[in-house]
Structures are given as structure tokens and as C-alpha cells.
Input
Amino acid sequence: MSRPLIIGVVGAPNDPAGDNGAEDRAKSLGGAIASAGAILLSGGGEGVVEAAVAAANRAGGNTIAILPSARRSSKSSAKVKVDTRMGDGRNFINAYAADVLVALPGGAGTLSEIALALKLDRPVIHFGYWSFLPLSHFPAMQLATTPDKAVALAFTALHVQVGERLDRPIQWPDVPDQRSNGVTFKNAISNW
Output
């Protein structure tokens, strides 16, 4: 069964890197992910991540938020919201369920998602905010200059063309059955 590529977008509610263009870059990223036919997966946060989710929605894309708690569910505009009730522990799900991660500016939570993705051998693409992590030590990390380039790198890292679907099952960790309005994560993706 083929399925869309799942691109995890991680970042912080505010911009600790001080990049005034981060929100515009996030919006362009969300639109590019939707245009490529990929699914945008996020942690449901505000700021740059929500900007990407909202842009993907406006472009007709599919979006999923892996939420830390039910209280945060109303803050994300994602089409599918999965309440994990795991707090920051849900960062593991974000890294595990994504085929590739795109990292926007962020703080310790974003860094934990990057670290988990690298431990899980997931490609990580960033725009220079995380350059203190030397690429020579982390070959799965790639630097993108534009949102379109980041999406192209995401597909290239998985050896598929932009817009192609993957012929492999959805990866979902063994956690209690998490549902969103009666829809499981796996069922939502298999319908896209």
C-alpha cells in the first residue's frame, strides 16, 4: 500500500533565534509540503509550527498534530489532532512517525525532537538554526536554503521524487491507542 511522505515540522512558539523571517519561511514551508502531496506532522505548537500548519491547510494539504494534552488541542489548526496525554514525551512520537524532520527555530523541545530523529536514523533538514550540530558528525542532517529546497531534500533523502508516494507501512510506536474524534493516526493517513 502506498502512502504520502510524512514530513515532521518542529519549532518553538516564539523565535529564540531572533530570525524575523522565520514565520514567513514557515508559511512557505507549509505550502510547499502541501503542494508536494506530503503530510505535515507537527507537535501542535504555536508560532512558526502553527504558521506552517495553517499554510499547508490553506494549500489543501493534510496536517496532523501530535498533542501533549487535550488542553492544547484547540490551539492547533491541524486537520487531525492526536491527544497523547504524554506531555513532552510525545516528542518521541513526532520523531518516530515522521519520515523526515524539518527543523525551524526552537528551543530545548525542538532540540530533543532533532536528537530523537537522529537516533532513529531519520533525515533532519534545517535552515541554519541548528548549525552548532556539526554536519560531519550527523550525516543525516542537511542544510536547506529555501522551503522548496527543504521539501526537495526530504523526498531525495527517502529516494523518491517530489510528489511520489512511499511503498512502506506507516511507522507508529507501540503506545496506547491514541484517537482523534474516533479516528486513529494510522487510519487517518491511510485515507489520504
